[in-house]
Amino acid sequence: MRAPVSDLPLMLVGARVVARQVAILDGITLTIAPGAPTILIGPNGSGKTTLLRAAMGLVPLSDGRITWGGREAVQSSQSAIVFQRPAMLRRTAVANVRYALAAASFPHSARHDRAAELLKLVGLDGLGGRPARRLSGGEQQRLALARALARDPAVLFLDEPTASLDPYATKAIEDIVHAVSARGVKVVMSTHDLGQAKRLAGDVVLLHRGRLIENTPAPEFFVSPRTEEARRFIAGELLV
């Protein structure tokens, strides 16, 4: 697994996404640099998912720009995304990963070994022959991570990957995040779980109503937040 630094930093400059005259993202300027995971937090409707999708080139900007390693592009060729409810192909777990490897133009002769390596990385090495749609929710999410990692991404976007999982499955996903981050992959992940943000984050991005409220190293964010909105959010108060 490799993470070419040429695709980082990822920069959003004045990024706006407007739908039906509502600003879903409202002038976001943000730099995502190599290193520990960047965790996006904020209430429902704050723009977390839209920011991830825009960075992947899945949602067009209404204004502003996005650059990868200083180059303007719709998206990086070395990025991948996992959604909260990933779709599973009607085939075995290992065949799902092989399909992803084929889509990434991975050499055919090496796909068998690479698929086995990826399944082992996400803790599914004993379940490769099981139909993907018969896996548990947590196992499907880990399989989705294996498929995303088949792209050998520099940046891995995760959209609330543990939102509907039990504590055991959540820990399994967090362990994978730690593992891929340690290998040099930049993880950008949204979550509603402040405890999870504390466990994973190198830096925290707080969004509210499409605006960037705070972007701070995690220890500083949780100990001495700079904004009133951040203090209220950490205290469990509703942001309206």
Q: Would you write up a description of this structure?
A:
The model has no long low-confidence stretch (mean pLDDT 93). A six-stranded mixed sheet has the order 6-7-8-3-9-10, with helices on both faces. It has a four-stranded antiparallel sheet with strand order 2-1-4-5, with helices on one face. With 240 residues, the protein is an alpha/beta fold. It has helices spanning 48-55, 93-103, 111-121, 137-149, 167-182, 194-200, 218-223, 228-234, and strands at residues 10-19, 22-32, 38-41, 63-68, 71-72, 79-82, 155-159, 186-190, 203-208, 211-217. Helix content is 33%, strand content 25%. It has eight helices and ten strands. The chain has a single domain, classed as 3-Layer(aba) Sandwich (Rossmann fold), CATH 3.40.50.300.
In a few lines, what is going on in this structure?
This protein is an alpha/beta fold. It contains 8 helices and 10 strands.
Blueprint of the fold:
Blueprint: E1 10-19, E2 22-32, E3 38-41, H1 48-55, E4 63-68, E5 71-72, E6 79-82, H2 93-103, H3 111-121, H4 137-149, E7 155-159, H5 167-182, E8 186-190, H6 194-200, E9 203-208, E10 211-217, H7 218-223, H8 228-234
Parallel strand pairs: 3-8, 3-9, 6-7, 7-8
Antiparallel strand pairs: 1-2, 1-4, 4-5, 9-10
Helix pairs in contact: 2-3, 2-4, 3-4, 4-5
